[in-house]
Task: structure prediction
Amino acid sequence: MNWLTNLIRPRIRSLVEPKDVPDNLWQKCAGCEGMLFHRDLLENMNVCYHCGHHLRISVKDRLEMMFDNGAYDKIDLPDVPHDPLKFKDRRKYADRIKDSRAKTGLKDAITIAKGTMGGIPVVIAAFNFSFMGGSMGAAVGEAILKAAEEAVKSRAALITVPASGGARMQEGMLSLVQMPRSIIAVEMVKDAGLPYVVLLTDPTTGGVSASFAMVGDIHIAEPGSMIGFAGRRVIEETVRETLPDDFQTAEYLLEHGIVDMVVKRQELKDTITNVLSMLMKKPQPEKKAKNGNGNGKKSGKGGNPKTNGKAPPASGEKASIDMEKDVQAARALGQVKAAQKAARRISKPPQKSAAKKASNS
Amino acid sequence: MSLEFEKPILELEGKIAELRHVTSDNRVNIASEITRMQAKADKLLVQTYGKLTPAQKVQVARHQERPHFLDYINYIIEDFTPLAGDRNFAEDHALIGGLGRFKGEPCVIIGHEKGHDTESRVYHNFGMARPEGYRKSQRLMKMAQQFQLPVITLVDTAGAYPGVGAEERGQSEAIAKSIETCLRTEVPIISVIIGEGGSGGAIAIAVADRIYMLEHSIYSVISPEGCASILWRNGAHAEEAATALKLTAQDLHRLGIIDDIIDEPIGGAHRRKEETMENVSRQIEKALNELIPWDRSSLIQNRRSKFIAQGRNL
Result:
């Protein structure tokens, strides 16, 4: 029967499973409407090479981009009771799950894996938004607990990468209790003295943002990500006013002190590795991250905004004003050196995205 | 405010009242008629409340006459001393907390207040707390730990407030940290869902050693209306959503989400407030007597294990 399993099954699978090749070789950027060729886009980590807009990225690509040489060990998701409420809206929840599994080839909305980043052991729990909107039910909560246990066991840092609309309604209260359950997972990691980093990606809202995603030692967000508690529409209906365009964006959260930094996808690995190495008192990592699958190559294709390796200020204008104050304060204190340093920061041209925003307003 | 499904009962009660009025006026003896009708009304009440649908329970849980947080404070807490503010930005009137004595013993008590008339409802923002409320709650829990006072939380909210300011000041972070604080607080925490347990805004203060629900209260990940408008794409399906969400005390007890159900008087808490509050008080006392002797670390460990176990054996 070997030929059946070895030969026929993979063929059938290849027919059924989602293919890596995109249907369209070209797609339009949601940020600037520029045309993007799939291969160039992939090389640029799914970041638009015209305007820097961060497109969503699959879990597989995410993990390959984060782990050293793109290599990692996937950890099986623990089994959880299946559809305990026997929930049915216009469709059965059980059927929705089946469809999502067939569509994504994943068991649920999260993937957990372990490996190293810059040689530092890490466990990553990354959400897949295309699986029922990345919603958090028992399977996801259980997976985060498992990831935390794994981190504690192997003295690894825990990194979560939420991309989720929130709790999975179809599991009722059993999904709401994943908020405390996922925070318990984080507590286990913190108790063990290990760092917990949250990489907030587009979108992170509702019960996910109001639980494990907001209790990190470090909060890093991808540019342009939508991060918030209540949905934009709900807020608009409640307050009956139009909200600013940048409302609930990563940059807006940075301005309001909720995330530590907004970091471009190309620099994420270096930034996280560097932070972890300091928190875990590991040797300073090499500056350039190595990516095994070639995805990590910095293509440098047209108009890739230059970066200084630090989180860009959300608004160039406001940042300069703040820095102006810094300079004055420093001068007043006679700290000439600090003043010079601050002045140097100002003289740097504002970020492209920030400049664009300023001209719009 | 009267509930649609209570109308037959209310009509009957209206008639009885009228008859009583007539009796006192004309001294006509129709006492037996009154007794008969009263018995009928009572029977109807028992029947109706004995088989409330989830959607009807949603209405009862939101009933304006239901005892609210401040009613409990007045009735079961002595020397209540409200403590205001998160020490950072503002005082939140939707989530009230402070020191008080429960059965003579000092405690920290925290809960949502919805208000009882238009003016107070606006003042309390309809029981929908902003980040400051959840940060105040964290502050009070930390204080409870410092002075080894048990914490009682009474939950009654449609949810955390969805507003621009709330988002700007980190509603998500405030709720997440509030849950984290509940998990870390090394004193007994007792939570009672007294009306509406609305999503993250409710669980933020309901991660406790003992979690109880009043018989006709609800606790849900999303309002049935919200769920219907998302999953059915039509808010009119709220009734179906209420059933599907399994948000009643009975369902949640079966699912192991809550520890016990506190009885309401026949006809719901809004008919006999004091009896309801008495029942709640008795249950809290029982739980505290049980938990007070526990040492700090086993409290925390048990609280964690309790939540870790949730949903695992269904």
Chain A has a mean pLDDT of 82.
